[in-house]
Specification:
- The chain has 258 residues and is of the alpha/beta class.
- The protein has one domain: Metallo-beta-lactamase, Chain A, CATH 3.60.15.10.
- The protein has helices at 2-30, 77-85, 124-128, 213-229, 250-253; strands spanning 41-42, 45-50, 53-61, 64-68, 93-97, 116-120, 152-154, 159-162, 165-171, 180-184, 187-189, 194-196, 202-204, 236-238.
- It has a 7-stranded mixed beta sheet with strand order 1-2-3-4-5-6-7, with helices on one face. The protein has a 5-stranded mixed beta sheet with strand order 8-9-10-11-14, with no helix packed on it.
- It is globular and about 70 Å long.
- Residues 15-28 have low confidence and may be disordered.
Amino acid sequence: MKTLERILIIAGIALAVLVLAVVALFAVTFMGRKKITDGLEINGVHVVRDSIVTACVIPIGPGRVALIDTGNDKSGKAILTELKREGLGPEAVKAILLTHGHRDHIGAVPLFRKAEVMILTADIELAEGRAGSRGPVQQLFPPHPTGVRVNRPLRDGDIVKLGRVTVRVYSISGHTEGSAAFLVNGVLIMGDSADATRAGKLTGAPWLFSDNQSQNRESLVRLGQRLVKEKAVVKALVFSHSGALIEGLTPLTAFKGE
């Protein structure tokens, strides 16, 4: 009996240590990020906070909007509230562009049945739940159907016309194979591929949730160089898990892959 008690005590201590280690790891990963401003509007791009993540609502014509990501909440409460504020319902969503296929970005996709769903080809199976992610945390969760159906595969360099709005598509692989950034109205929406610190510095995606951190950093450096070469007009950088940086392209071009 005493032997069993000792085993249970040791197992309990080991479990407690493991839980504390995981909590500490998550805290280190997310601490120091710039706070998200819910409802921030930049050049017609409305940033909506859904708990720990953001989605973007973009008017593309009278009574019509596009979304970039749909958050983690399957009920889509934050997005629906933003639409209601504009006198719109879910049928107003005509297009959804996904920065990548992780579940905290695709939660509310099935709510918007009239929307054309777009993502880079490499992340289609991930978004639909037919394949898993290779990140250290994501590997713990087997793939299963998400209810998402991609209607339009995207490629690097695509130009997507959505009513009065044009979206330019950039591949920034690393966080996932099919991670993308979207440039719309001078706003570069980067998903999880980068974050902003409280000091206003751009950082890469955390290794804990990324397929290939080195590839992510290389992709960010190349993206900055590419946008400079293209003389792209970028007024702000928007991220999914931290606040936006409204300092033009400078925070991205200053990133050296460290």
